[in-house]
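lol so apparently i was supposed to do this last week
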Amino acid sequence: MVVLGIESSCDETAAAVVGPDKVLSDVVHSQQIHADYGGVVPELAARAHVEKLGVVVRAALERASVQRPDAVVATAGPGLIGAVLTGLAWGKALALGWGVPFLGVNHLEGHLLSALLEEEPPTWPFLSLVVSGGHTTLYRCDALGSYVVLGQTVDDAAGEAFDKTARLMGLGYPGGPAIDRLAAQGDRAAVSLPRPDPGALDWSFSGLKTAVRNHVRSPERAADADVCASFQAAVVDCLLDRVVRASEQTGITSLAIAGGVAANSELRDRVSQLPWPTFIPPRARCTDNGAMIANAGRLHLLAGRLDPPDVGARPGWQVGV
Ligand code: KG4
Ligand code: ZN
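anyway here it is w/ zinc ion bound
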């Protein structure tokens, strides 16, 4: 089954074609218009998706040499309602025109199943750490559609902490890549920062961001590279601490990471050093993309799921129990 997948939940307009065991094309347009505002402006994102969806979808079909896929899937949530609606409407219209099945896909499930696109995918059950701009959640993945939330953030998402910290340091948006780049030249031990632990397998990042704010306003402000390296080390320490605890509690020693923050160099390095099978998608598969949506949709279609043509957007749609 060859599936066209469309992603438009935030500031990436993306489309991909995925066939049996293979990504046939994967086209991502990252919107630049939000940089001036220091964050994604929902109305601008939706308008920019409308402008780019046609080009991006056509490019994905052409690169895959596919004229009419066997099914179309699109992100139905969670995400910015206006942005989600654009790709969803586009996908439903294409499916209707071609007379092929349509399915609305959960964006988070797209991230957490992206490890299955790897050449040597994990076998069930595995742990999946989804760390993005809006989510920081550790799942136990038992089977397709069967996920248990083991831990999550009680305040800011990890990506949000990167973005807010970068903003208060004047490093621009999105903050994650900027901090990652600077941290490479910094000393991880230069600034003493807290490792907040709200208990269970949860995270809390807002205090860490405040600690950085207090530090950069103090007379002892370290060099930016040192602040970035220290902040990044604290975030990664917190992330891995819960992962190791979760593994001890569940007995599962297989870990996949996903979401924009999974593109972070230190997180990737340290996850790869864990003494377990780890699944670290290439950077382009960590940030939002169409291949992960096509993949998740395809797996559900093969399992017999299908949506009616009037399926709506679900901006708050979560996965897992
Ligand atoms: O998954 P994603 O592309 O979109 C959401 O669904 O949120 O994640 C975007 C987030 C942003 O907060 C961005 O700053 C962060 O991922 N990010 C990074 C890196 N690249 C992107 N954070 C840390 N290090 C990076 N290299
Ligand atoms: Zn995402």
